[in-house]
Amino acid sequence: MSLYVNIKKVMGNFTLEVEFSANNEITALLGASGCGKSMTLKCIAGIETPDEGTIVLDGRVLFDSEQKINLSPQKRKVGYLFQNYALFPNMTVEENIGIGVISGKHERKEAVEEKIKIFYLEGLEKKRPHQLSGGQQQRVALARIMASEPDIIMLDEPFCALDSYLKWQLEQKIMDSLSGFQGTVLLVSHNRNEVYRFSKTVAVISDGRVETVSEKKSLFAAPKKLSAALLTGCKNISRVEKLAEHTLRAVDWDLELHTEKGLSDEIKYVGIRAHYLKYTEREDLHNVMTCEVAKVIENPFSYIIMLKNKSGKDDNSQIRWEIDKDLWRDISVKDSPIRIIFKEEDLLLLE
Amino acid sequence: MDLSPLYVSLKVAFSATAVTVLFGIPAGWYVFKIKRFKGLIDGVFTLPMVLPPTVVGFFLLTIFGRNSLIGSFLLRFDISVVFTWIGAVVASTVVAFPLMYRTVRGAFEQFDINMIYAARTLGIAEFKIFYKVVIPNVLPSIVAGTVLSFARALGEFGATMMLAGNIPGKTQTIALSIYTAVQAGDKAKAYNWVLIICTMSFTSMILINFWNRAQEKRTAKRGDI
């Protein structure tokens, strides 16, 4: 069971050109809003028609511009969870879930009862959508999708409309209910934490293109592209100038850095995550920057310190450093200037 | 007092409203869905609302006249539109149609399109989507459009006069009989009919408000858990 997508669609001055495949597991499409994630889902579902390309699901051709195949959404067997759930307000929970069941009356009743149980909806059968909480509505929408027996489930920003204090619990409930599903699951999100928690494979989409497809751990540990680094939450990024095989100059920080890996010509940026920067008292080591504090921002459990290279130019970009509250308390009282070290193994070399 | 204008008016208004509903809903759906020539088709459908009723009547007379293509065709089946109550229905329908069409189309445009998309991905056939999902959710607008159309059909004057004439007992509606009574200086008769038509219009408006209130109550009741 798998999905293969290779499509192109031009919309005004935006071109969507994505190619990826997804196996029988949860695959995430990670991208900023407006990058084409939702449009990709709509093309797979048959709601939008790509200009050219192919979409194949479990060996069934859903769309092929050359063979002139374009199955209607009804025939695609694609479950689509909309951001606003799109429940039918004129129907009860039961009716909403039952409407997509094709089989006879008796089977429909059974299928509905089963889904009500799986999705923790007992007691709500006769309620209408606007009488339910956001989380309940979402589970009804998912139950409705599952009752129609799709080959793939696509979740469009499933958690972004939920109240944040309940989010964690609801997320877990939903993913539990989905665990019985055998087919492919596509999760569209701009939230790297959600993506990391729920998916195995991540496709990074930026400006209408798939930048990388990789296993989530390797993506977060070593994003190869600038867009992937930004989307996985890397806050410090500078353009680079290659000086030698293992030496570069970070232009935006005015800093010379030694790297562990050799530099290829494709490397255009260097990045480091805010919590990987470490404090040091020594000045004689490689990759150490003597800094000026530009701003201190307090978070519940950490400080974010905005730093500037002391010997750098005025227009250098600031560096964001995240540090435990206790550590910062010790450091901030010292007389000596603050020095931070960019460890070689923590540098992200980006295309 | 001869009550035939009341009878003719009701017969014509109810028939015209029925036809308007029958055509207005699909027309609203059709224009909502098409992508090409949307403006043009919308313009044609709305035209009877903005044209002077006499102009509409003139066009209808041209289309349905005995010497026209359609008129002579209908005559073969012994159906005459000009100077008959059918003509009054045609005139009222054409004039009331834009009200129904525009109200319903507006409701379709307000309708959450994702609901239709979701229904499609759930495998529900297009026709079933229309009557199980779309229609129930735009019902208040359909009712509003129906009442407006009925009121318009009941008050139709110009186009009816042009196409169906003013034949007492046959095509003379209340609106036409008021005109005739005033022309003849029969003020008492005019007053009577004015009173009747005011009562009718007012009652229908009260009823629709009543219905709206009931709808609101129903949703409000559903709203709190």
Automatic annotation (TrEMBL), chain A:
<feature type="domain" description="ABC transporter">
    <location>
        <begin position="2"/>
        <end position="232"/>
    </location>
</feature>
<dbReference type="InterPro" id="IPR003593">
    <property type="entry name" value="AAA+_ATPase"/>
</dbReference>
<protein>
    <submittedName>
        <fullName>Molybdate transport system ATP-binding protein</fullName>
    </submittedName>
</protein>
<dbReference type="Pfam" id="PF00005">
    <property type="entry name" value="ABC_tran"/>
</dbReference>
<dbReference type="InterPro" id="IPR003439">
    <property type="entry name" value="ABC_transporter-like_ATP-bd"/>
</dbReference>
<dbReference type="GO" id="GO:0016887">
    <property type="term" value="F:ATP hydrolysis activity"/>
</dbReference>
<dbReference type="InterPro" id="IPR017871">
    <property type="entry name" value="ABC_transporter-like_CS"/>
</dbReference>
<dbReference type="InterPro" id="IPR050093">
    <property type="entry name" value="ABC_SmlMolc_Importer"/>
</dbReference>
<dbReference type="GO" id="GO:0005524">
    <property type="term" value="F:ATP binding"/>
</dbReference>
<keyword id="KW-0813">Transport</keyword>
<keyword id="KW-0067">ATP-binding</keyword>
<dbReference type="InterPro" id="IPR027417">
    <property type="entry name" value="P-loop_NTPase"/>
</dbReference>
<keyword id="KW-0547">Nucleotide-binding</keyword>
TrEMBL record, chain B:
<protein>
    <recommendedName>
        <fullName>Molybdenum transport system permease</fullName>
    </recommendedName>
</protein>
<comment type="similarity">
    <text>Belongs to the binding-protein-dependent transport system permease family. CysTW subfamily.</text>
</comment>
<keyword id="KW-1003">Cell membrane</keyword>
<dbReference type="InterPro" id="IPR011867">
    <property type="entry name" value="ModB_ABC"/>
</dbReference>
<dbReference type="Pfam" id="PF00528">
    <property type="entry name" value="BPD_transp_1"/>
</dbReference>
<feature type="transmembrane region" description="Helical">
    <location>
        <begin position="77"/>
        <end position="101"/>
    </location>
</feature>
<dbReference type="InterPro" id="IPR000515">
    <property type="entry name" value="MetI-like"/>
</dbReference>
<keyword id="KW-0812">Transmembrane</keyword>
<comment type="function">
    <text>Part of the binding-protein-dependent transport system for molybdenum; probably responsible for the translocation of the substrate across the membrane.</text>
</comment>
<dbReference type="InterPro" id="IPR035906">
    <property type="entry name" value="MetI-like_sf"/>
</dbReference>
<keyword id="KW-0500">Molybdenum</keyword>
<keyword id="KW-0813">Transport</keyword>
<keyword id="KW-0472">Membrane</keyword>
<dbReference type="GO" id="GO:0015098">
    <property type="term" value="F:molybdate ion transmembrane transporter activity"/>
</dbReference>
<feature type="transmembrane region" description="Helical">
    <location>
        <begin position="12"/>
        <end position="32"/>
    </location>
</feature>
<feature type="transmembrane region" description="Helical">
    <location>
        <begin position="44"/>
        <end position="65"/>
    </location>
</feature>
<feature type="transmembrane region" description="Helical">
    <location>
        <begin position="129"/>
        <end position="151"/>
    </location>
</feature>
<keyword id="KW-1133">Transmembrane helix</keyword>
<dbReference type="GO" id="GO:0005886">
    <property type="term" value="C:plasma membrane"/>
</dbReference>
<feature type="domain" description="ABC transmembrane type-1">
    <location>
        <begin position="6"/>
        <end position="206"/>
    </location>
</feature>
<feature type="transmembrane region" description="Helical">
    <location>
        <begin position="190"/>
        <end position="212"/>
    </location>
</feature>
